[in-house]
Amino acid sequence: MKSEKERVFRMKRFVISHRLSAMKVGIDAVLLGAWTSVPKHGILLDAGCGCGIISLMLAQRSGSSLSIQAIDTDPFAIIESKENFSVSPWNGRLSARRADFLHLAGTFSQIVSNPPYFRAGVNSGESARMKARHAAALSPLTLLAKAATLLIPSGTLSLICPPFWKEELTAEAKRCGMSLSRCCRVIDSPGEDPVRLLLEFTKTDSPQTPESESLFIRDSEGEYSPEYRRLTRDFYLNF
What we know:
This protein has a single domain (20-232), classed as Rossmann fold, CATH 3.40.50. 28% of the residues lie in helices and 28% in strands. It has 8 helices and 10 strands. The strands form 2 sheets. It has an 8-stranded mixed beta sheet, with helices on both faces. Strands 1-2 form a two-stranded antiparallel sheet. Strand 3 (42-47), helix 3 and strand 4 (66-72) form a beta-alpha-beta unit. Residues 1-5 and 118-136 have low confidence and may be disordered.
């Protein structure tokens, strides 16, 4: 039997159960939930919500004029998201349903996603988590192309992915009437190469010069860096 610690992740203002969904609470989701821009009003879509961690973080960061819709193709993720939403302070602004993003209809102010991004094939013996990270069904490129059809003018798409996707995503954005507006290089510690990119694309006819920054997770001593602590201090209990 799994321990309580393995089944529940506690933040400062909410608790996340992640016993059912394939995607557990991880640093990628926390980074995206803490970094992404948040609109003041409208409808925000969490595409591929997993246990609902990003939706809850964005609910904490936003006001009552923003509603958040979470979708996933995994039925267990939706069950778990609904459970997590129901015991949060923002239950009235959060909803979750099973849906395929590529067949979705609607209009959104913002779309946020921690998408599958591995290019390599996935075989039947691999774990549910590995299958959930595979880009065959919903790659960052298809995510971007579909988001362009769902966003309002000046709406944004925020995602996290490995650095090798950036060139293709920037080219696809131009084709779809989107423009890279923010980019954050996530680096484990000084002297290392980036391991992730936090990217934000805006639906606009006018190309933009993106805001660019770097974020170190740990400092040269191996401790969590001041900038990482500042970014996530409203969420982690020990920050």
